[in-house]
UniProtKB/TrEMBL annotation, chain B:
This is Spermidine/putrescine import ATP-binding protein PotA. It comes from Mesorhizobium ciceri. One of its GO terms (molecular function) is ATP hydrolysis activity. Belongs to the ABC transporter superfamily. Spermidine/putrescine importer (TC 3.A.1.11.1) family. Part of the ABC transporter complex PotABCD involved in spermidine/putrescine import. Responsible for energy coupling to the transport system. Keywords: ATP-binding, Cell inner membrane, Cell membrane, Membrane, Nucleotide-binding, Translocase, Transport. Residues 23-253 form the ABC transporter domain. The complex is composed of two ATP-binding proteins (PotA), two transmembrane proteins (PotB and PotC) and a solute-binding protein (PotD). Its EC number is 7.6.2.11. GO terms for biological process: putrescine transport. One of its GO terms (cellular component) is ATP-binding cassette (ABC) transporter complex. It catalyses: ATP + H2O + polyamine-[polyamine-binding protein]Side 1 = ADP + phosphate + polyamineSide 2 + [polyamine-binding protein]Side 1.
């Protein structure tokens, strides 16, 4: 459209007014386009898949391809389609409330994710603080070191932890050899192993937002606090920590949200008895081939996560406001 | 020399041999790695003095201030405050407060809480904090901005909050690091006088770091001119300007014309200086420099008169050609190229609207000055 505007303009230089209107329309269109693209992306890769999942969650399981009914189609015309719609029901959601397994899985997932998030924060904050206070020349190297593990497959890194944590693994060998313990520790296939796995895997998601919040903080604020009679520890809690809060919130949500639905870590490190919603979902989908129930589990999980996601967005908006 | 003293008539403790120094730098050296920021420097500041550390950036003046605040420790030497050695005392236990160049206002706190911060640290009772904060807000005329956050204020308002916060605790000494650096010219001039009033009213000792000589001249009782970590001269603004101790100081503060020469004949402070190319300068301010000494004669532009004819009564008159004229409204600056090629800068107040003796580019002209107008420098 904008190219059309240009040709019109060059073809009839006399009509100045027409040229400017067309050019303006073109510019407005380009402006719109830039805004539209992310919405189109969201429509195709978030909203439509979600509607499909939601529809499946209202269907009944069936021995068919696809393994549920009704599979909406227009072969029966409008009336046939409407008849199919009438078969949809909330039965699967009722089913979820009747079996305590699902409720427990949700609760356990949220608790494990919350504990892991706090642990990640405790480990990540000193790292981010150290990085932000390091000489400016070595900061890029430190950042690289934090990101470097991502260059290896996530699955392989979690597998590696099995080798470290198992009873005859590296950690136990080291502790036994140095005489710290005399019996191997049982870590693998416990919640401890899940915490270790999540903290390890999600640490960069915590460190990076914390680092960016701490790094842009003016160090003279700390000096001002000290100058006004505030000892260093107190200055940390009164100045540094509050100012890094947007980073803390962003980091915590970036860890918490994926950790709730985590499947690989509890499956590999937590053993068979751990009950997390990601594993439940996997079992319903692949072991039981119950697409409708697993879709219902997924929909509930999404609703569960919408609250923290919205908190995340509000924190981001607030951080942006503070930057101005 | 007469009346080159303090602007405040009754305040000149530096001339009183019995006056007790309040802040003392004793042979202080500060090194950062190989770089010597402050080199074996000694300095005395008196109570209730408005003292300025003036120097180009990187001369070590900020380091002096930071050592006083406790953010840096001297590598050698000691700093005394009211007789107490400050070594090893952390910044949060020193009875000094600092106003930072960046203001360093806490962005997550309101104006009120910024000002109250130091008072809360001292465990002052709440009602007292409230009344002190109100007093400070009134002092800097920001009463209606108490609940605002720093990012909702203008540059000038932030500067006032920083000032209020740093004086709220009634420190023994207030340190100001380029306090007016971020303000525009007009606001800076207003604020200079406000700072002086504040210092008078609160009766505090102010140590201000600045690279702006006009700022230092306006506000300070005494100025220390710092270069490469060393004190070049400590004196009142009038002394620094009218009786600079060295070529560096004369050149650093204000504009100056310098003639290199040798004392041809001298007696009891008066001398003739042979400045080469047939130029002889007669001066009353030769001090103790004897005949044959290589000296620099320094004279300020406003003490030189420019005229189209040789003034009959002038002791010193040198001929040249008008090379450049800058009309600045309140005054006119002439650049006159002498016959030996040296350019002399002379400024004339435009006291009348129409000049009686108009000069133009390339006119022949005479520069003349009185024998007591300049100073003779040997360093």
């Amino acid at each position: 459209m904008s190219s059309a505007a240009v040709t019109t303009a060059s073809a009839s230089p006399a009509s100045d007014a027409g040229k400017s209107i067309l050019a303006r329309l073109g510019a407005a269109f380009v402006g719109r386009l830039v805004i539209i693209i992310p919405y189109v992306w969201l429509l195709f890769f978030f909203l439509i898949p979600f509607v499909i999942v939601f529809k499946i969650s209202l269907s009944q399981t069936a021995i068919a391809i696809p393994p549920y009914t009704p599979a909406l189609d227009f072969s029966g015309g409008i009336s046939g389609f409407l008849a199919q719609l009438k078969q949809l029901s909330l039965d699967n959601y009722t089913w979820l409330t009747q079996d305590a397994l699902y409720f427990n899985a949700y609760v356990t997932s949220v608790i494990i994710a919350a504990v892991s998030t706090v642990l990640t924060l405790l480990v990540g904050y000193p790292i981010a603080y150290g990085m932000a206070r390091a000489p400016a020349t070595i900061r890029p190297t430190l950042l690289m070191l934090v990101i470097l593990p991502f260059w290896t497959s996530f699955l392989i890194r979690v597998y590696a932890w099995i080798g470290i944590l198992k009873p005859e693994g590296l950690l136990n060998q080291l502790l036994l050899a140095t005489g710290v313990i005399h019996q191997p520790l049982i870590i693998l296939n416990t919640y401890t192993a899940i915490f270790i796995g999540i903290v390890y895997s999600y640490l960069p998601f915590m460190v990076l937002p914390l680092y960016s919040a701490l790094e842009k903080m003016d160090y003279s604020l700390i000096e001002a606090a000290k100058d006004l009679g505030c000892p260093p520890t107190s200055a940390f809690w009164k100045i540094t920590f509050p100012l890094s809060l947007p980073g803390v919130i962003a980091g915590c949500l970036l860890v918490f949200i994926p950790a709730v639905g985590e499947f690989v870590i509890p499956d590999l490190l937590g053993g068979s008895q751990t009950l997390m919603i990601g594993k439940t979902l996997w079992n319903e989908f692949f072991a039981n081939r119950d697409w409708p129930v697993s879709s219902a589990v997924a929909v509930i999980l999404l609703l569960l996560l919408i609250v923290p996601i919205m908190l995340f967005q509000r924190a981001q908006a607030r951080a942006q406001e503070m930057d101005r | 020399m007469k009346s080159l003293g303090s602007i405040r008539r009754d305040f000149a403790p530096w001339n009183d041999p019995n006056a007790k120094p309040y802040i003392q730098f004793d042979n202080v050296t500060k090194k950062f790695g190989d770089f010597t920021a402050v080199n074996n420097l000694s300095l005395t500041i008196f109570e209730r003095e408005f003292f300025a550390l003036l120097g180009a950036s990187g001369c070590g003046k900020s380091t002096l201030l930071r050592m006083l605040a406790g953010f840096e420790e001297p590598t050698a030497g000691r700093i005394l405050l009211d007789g107490q050695d400050l070594r090893g005392i952390p910044p949060y236990r020193r009875p000094v407060n600092m106003m930072f160049q960046s203001y360093a206002l806490f962005p997550h706190m309101t104006v009120e809480n910024n000002i109250a911060f130091g008072l809360k640290q001292d465990g002052m009772p709440k009602p007292e904090i409230a009344s002190r904060v109100a007093e400070m807000l009134k002092l800097v005329k920001l009463e209606q901005f108490a609940k605002r956050k720093p990012h909702q204020l203008s540059g000038g308002q932030r500067q006032r909050v920083a000032l209020a916060r740093s004086v709220a605790k009634r420190p023994k000494v207030l340190l100001l690091d380029e306090p007016l650096g971020a303000l525009d010219k007009k606001l800076r001039e207003e604020t200079q006088f406000e700072l002086m009033d504040l210092q008078q009213n609160l009766g505090l000792t102010f140590v201000v770091v600045t690279h702006d000589q006009e700022e230092a001249m306006t506000m300070a009782d005494r100025i220390a001119i710092i270069d490469k970590g060393e004190v070049m001269q400590v004196a009142t603004p009038a002394e620094v300007y009218e009786a600079p101790g060295s070529r560096f100081v004369a050149g650093f503060v204000g504009n100056v014309n310098m003639f290199e020469g040798k004392i041809a004949r001298g007696e009891a402070g008066s001398a003739s200086i042979d400045a080469g190319n047939g130029i002889t300068i007669r001066t009353d301010n030769a001090g103790t420099a004897g005949a044959g000494t290589a000296v620099t004669f320094a004279i300020r532009p406003e003490k030189i008169k420019v005229s189209s004819k040789k003034p009959a009564e002038a002791v010193n008159a040198i001929e040249g050609e008008v090379y450049d004229i800058a009309y600045l409204g309140d005054m006119t600056v002439y650049h006159v190229r002498l016959d030996d090629g040296q350019v002399v800068r002379a400024s004339t107040m435009n006291a009348a609207r129409i000049t009686e003796d108009p000069l133009s580019w390339n006119d022949r002209a005479w520069v003349s000055f009185r024998p007591d107008a300049g100073v003779v420098l040997t360093r």
